[in-house]
């Protein structure tokens, strides 16, 4: 009860106390004794319904809005995307014939159907010949908001990264962009789709492929109950989730998991206190800068309860263990076990409302 009380401002508490008093008064006075018990007292029922809807957590909402911010309605760059471009990008994204042996597509490692949350649930994904990848495949939901692509940040935009999975020897393993273009040209479905998507330059091209995939990926916006809470609905989170959010903010988790994605905007060193893949040197492998060794992108936390396992090597199976490991990093103080559970409870509210935890 004490934890729940902290979630209400003085003004809200007075409002609740007043409403409870009115409910008691109306319940004690029944002007029509002939009415059946099943009918009840309409005024009392209305007040009870009103009380049930009384929101708590206005102060937490304001703090979260200031420290985390609102998810923009549209992803950057999507203003000029057309439905035809999104449709073409979706088809390319799901096309198995664009892997060397016609077995794998982008959708294989980033499934979206049903309750799938844009990642395959593997520690590291397998390539089209079963070859083991080096890093965990992150969710593709909300990828259009990310300023940093890949764990080591080697790509700066969706356009730049669009072709990489087709040519990576550990993924779809095509030998060249020329082979990718030839496969698109040999599929009769694509001619009309490219023409509809790019009427001013209807020829099938790698440039248009990059644009189409980027448009599709920018459309993958994930909205959660947390978004409802922070935007307008104080009832969208229950008291336990609000308390978890308060703990998350109080402990300084937003020092690393900042912004409306709750991460994804900076690199942090993942030191050797815990055991991770020792052969993966992180951002150093891209920059060659010694100071970048063991630095990885801080992952955004949206949909985190749907996207186990965790960290760049997928070595942690449970969210509680992942949160526990954060005790070794930039916390304002060590977390207790109860606080860890509380934060995990809050993180569930970041899941896409169309998916299931």
UniProtKB/TrEMBL annotation:
Question: Keywords in UniProt for this one?
Answer: Heme, Iron, Metal-binding, Oxidoreductase, Periplasm, Peroxidase, Signal
Q: Where does heme c 2 bind?
A: 253, 256-257, 326
| Gene Ontology MF term list | cytochrome-c peroxidase activity; electron transfer activity; heme binding; metal ion binding
- Mind telling me how this protein is modified after translation? Binds 2 heme groups per subunit.
What does the note accompanying the cofactor annotation read?
Answer: Binds 2 heme groups.
Name where it mostly resides.
Answer: periplasm
Any coiled-coil ranges, and where?
none
Which InterPro entries does the record cross-reference, listed alphabetically? Cyt_c-like_dom (IPR009056), Cyt_c-like_dom_sf (IPR036909), Cytochrome_c_Peroxidase/MauG (IPR051395), Di-haem_cyt_c_peroxidsae (IPR004852), MauG/Cytc_peroxidase (IPR026259)
Keyword Iron attributed: yes
Cofactor requirement: heme
- Subcellular location, record wording: Periplasm
Instruction: Write out the residues that bind heme c 1.
Output: 106, 109-110
Please verify whether the record's keywords include Signal.
yes
Cytochrome c domain span:
84-221, 239-351
Q: One Gene Ontology cellular component annotation?
A: periplasmic space
Protein name per its UniProtKB record: Cytochrome-c peroxidase
Q: State the organism named in the record.
A: Leptospira ilyithenensis
